[in-house]
Task: structure prediction
Amino acid sequence: KLQFLYFIGGKMSDQPDMDKANEVCVGPQSEKAGKADACKGCPNATLCATGAGKGEDPDLKVLTERMATIGSKVLVLSGKGGVGKSTMTKELGLMMGRMGLQVGLMDSDICGPSLPRLTGAMGEEIHTNNEGWEPVAVDDNVGLVSIQYLLDNISDAVIFRGPRKNGVIKNFMKDVAWGDLDVLLVDTPPGTSDEHLSIVSYFKQSGGCDGAVIVTTPQEVAVADVRRELNFCKKSNIKVLGIVENMSGFVCPSCKKGSDIFPPKAGAVLSAGERLAEEFGVPFFGKIPLDPALMAACERGEPLEDFVIANAKEAGKETVMPPSVLALQGVASKLLKALGKEAPKTA
Amino acid sequence: KATVSVLYCRQKMENVQHKLVVLSGKGGVGKSTVACQLAMGLAQSGKKVGLLDVDLCGPSVPKIMGVEGKDVTQGETGWVPVTTEGSGVKVMSIQFLLENEGDAVVWRGPRKDQCIKQFLKDVEWGALDVLVIDTPPGTSDEHITLCEVLRPLPNIGAVVVTSPQNVACDAVRKELSFCKKLNLPVHGIIENMSGFACPHCADCTPIFSTGGGQQLATEYTLPFLGTIPLDPRLSQSEDAGIHFTKAFPDSQTAVSINNILGKIATVV
Result:
């Protein structure tokens, strides 16, 4: 399926074929495109040398049209891996969908796509129609596009260098028929590399994005990476809509006493997320505690609220929404407010 | 066909007996934690150890090793790696080359590829028993470059880290496919964040689910090297740059890490 990625959706003959590019490709936009040492033997060399990769990208028109039907575009970023970007994207996306908003989820983590598992929509396929690629419906009002849907097996590795990953992201932005969306949430891999640069660049060239939600965890090792991500946003002129501090404290289900599994800096008055928010002058969206129920909901591919309700029903108890749900609802409402949106109906 | 720079890298690596790459498809499972603990442990047992951090966007190794912000000097034949005081591990990371700690390294693949090759051929590693290599999550430029350069060399292998839950194992399966496809031998699988023992009541909660690591090992017929439970003091030690297993030898986490170390030591 993957080899057709660059051909679905339009003629590519006058553009360098990134699938055939040399491994250490400098990029068709580079000054040395087609002429660098790395270009020797590359089938695109002549095209790139004549500047085919540079100048106005003919795909830009289509990409801009696709993005024009989307109300708000939000990146979910973190410098650090494993802090809960995909979990946040899933919970916020599903919550907003339940509120009646039309939501798109774009999984731009090409090497480690998590959203199909988290939304309970593994094993689906992306179908194409006249409009383009159809996002997979993971809930009422919520559509998802992920490279996982283009792989034959779950365990298939996507062993792409940067330029090929950029090609996939471009497909997600210009070939998917997102339609009229209220919000597009873009889940990203950790770091500040090809995927991030490409997404930001394509957004910039197609009308911009509304900003980013930054996810961190409380410990210093995470803070250092997230600080870099915030600096990346600053340099790229991406508005930081808010910071979320995830895995912030744990309440033992047995004895109900609290512990910090990822302890904050010793002696710090403010938590890591609060400190970063203050340092960069950006809003703090809140702390989400470590909750085994959230982990279980993700394992089962259900929204946390549904999982909590089902559990309570099974135990014959009244549903009491745990702090994690309330915290996530808080983040969702702050995010919508930051985007200038009012939810059609409350959760 | 190998380029000149790749050949230089391999030449430099001839003085390194064993190359141990720490991988995971998933971010945040503890690759850097495992890489640093392995490096410190192997050094403590008397081996000459180098620790190379090729996570260019999120270099965590210097902080964990207690050498954050140190300077790298120019020696006669290349950069002199930073040597840790306690364990005597030679460390190299992009973090040492950043002017400000908060600077983001916003590089596309080709530049990352070049940087990694420089870390292999332009650093005065000297003669080492083991070079431990910490990697970012994924199967992209950094991983492809490492395999391209190091795979033809003798005594290279990977240790794959996962956390117990499905979403991590999904990504790790891809990493294992990557290893298979690129013929990178895998010494075994480590399951990190394997349960949390409440310090108040000692009840153990499987916060990040359970069993994923063993399942992967069975599925791929690989050695299961062990589980590492969560201990807040490990995170605190890393933030402070102190050697956790030395500071808290009685912690179940330290015991688990040392067990795994014992198994790795037989391979390198």
